[in-house]
Specification:
Elements (H helix, E strand, L loop, with lengths): L7 E5 L3 H12 L5 E5 L3 H10 L4 E3 L10 E4 L3 H11 L8 E4 L5 H6 L1 H4 L4 E2 L1 E4 L20 E5 L6 H13 L3 E4 L2 H25 L2 H4 L4 H6 L7 H9 L2 H23 L3 H24 L6
Parallel strand pairs: 1-2, 1-4, 2-3, 4-5, 5-6, 8-9
Antiparallel strand pairs: 7-8
Helix pairs in contact: 7-11, 11-12
Length: about 290
């Protein structure tokens, strides 16, 4: 089934990410009715007023008849949503999510598979430290990466539908196993948040008042939602610990260079980081993932 043929799409959690998905689908002229499910009436009313969803409700039962459902909630709420959807959706429906870790979520998705409802894990790597529908944007996902993590139990048609979803709203899709995803994101996404938090916590509140733009840029993501990030870290502990050990080893190299007054080694370490970072910026410009 093509994304353009869908008649009814459900979004559980039409906040920043869920609302942006809905706005992006409408911007791409997807004509399916979009049903939003939230846990506060005022948030649902705002999502309708914002033009992100066509109808909004507080109960998952209203997703009956949806051919595609996107769970855009914190990780801690995904399992209960999956458990409920198993008794609501018809066989043949497809469910995906936006969780930042994938192994545990894809295991939960197995309950849907037993009801002939396909679960295909996703992780759109886009967002903000902000939360809520008022920060949703139709272009939030343009040129950003999205991981799709099918398992051997998924049919090609279900995987294709989920891939279409993300490509339709402008994302670059990368297919990976749930484990491959968690290992990579533990290094390039989860570790940076922990490092940013560590940098902030190293300073007293008074000392932070003297920071400049470099510190502010480096630690921006430390302002992310605490509960959301706790869920992420606790659902990917092994790979995050691996990443922390690797990072600590790199810090120790710099410490050793300073202690031994080895200026040449320090230059090599800093030059290596600069070269890799410069190449990364060039790559991001070329792929229109950052603006000049």
């Amino acid at each position: 089934m093509s994304i353009k043929q869908l008649r009814k799409i459900g979004i559980v959690g039409p906040g920043l990410i869920g609302g942006s998905i809905a706005l992006a689908l409408k911007s791409a002229n997807i004509r399916a009715k979009i049903i939003g499910i939230g846990h506060r009436q005022n948030s649902i009313d705002r999502a309708v007023e914002f033009g992100a969803i066509d109808e909004g409700y507080l109960t998952l039962e209203k997703l009956n008849g949806c051919q595609l459902v996107i769970i855009a909630t914190p990780i801690s709420l995904i399992k209960s949503a999956i458990d409920s959807l198993a008794d609501i959706l018809a066989p043949g429906a497809v469910v995906t999510d936006v969780g930042s870790t994938k192994r545990q979520i894809c295991k939960w998705g197995g309950k849907l598979m037993r009801k002939n409802i396909e679960f295909v894990g996703s992780h759109p790597v886009a967002g903000s430290e902000k939360r809520g529908i008022d920060f949703a944007r139709h272009d939030l996902f343009v040129n950003a990466n999205c991981f799709v993590t099918p398992t051997r139990k998924n049919s090609p048609s279900a995987v294709n539908l989920v891939v279409q979803l993300w490509k339709t709203i402008g994302m670059n899709v990368i297919e990976a196993t749930p484990a491959q995803h968690d290992k990579l994101l533990g290094l390039v996404s989860h570790l940076p948040h922990i490092v940013a938090a560590g940098l902030v916590n190293t300073c007293s509140q008074r000392q932070l008042e003297f920071t400049g733009t470099g510190f502010m840029d480096t630690t921006r993501i430390a302002s992310g939602d605490v509960k959301l990030w706790t869920d992420i870290i606790m659902s990917n502990p092994d790979y995050i610990v691996q990443s922390l050990k690797k990072f600590t080893a790199k810090l120790n190299e710099i410490t050793e260079a300073i202690n031994s007054e080895d200026e040449n080694k320090l230059v090599r370490l800093l030059a290596s980081a600069k070269t890799k970072r410069d190449k990364l910026v060039e790559f991001k410009y070329q792929h229109k993932q950052i603006e000049a």
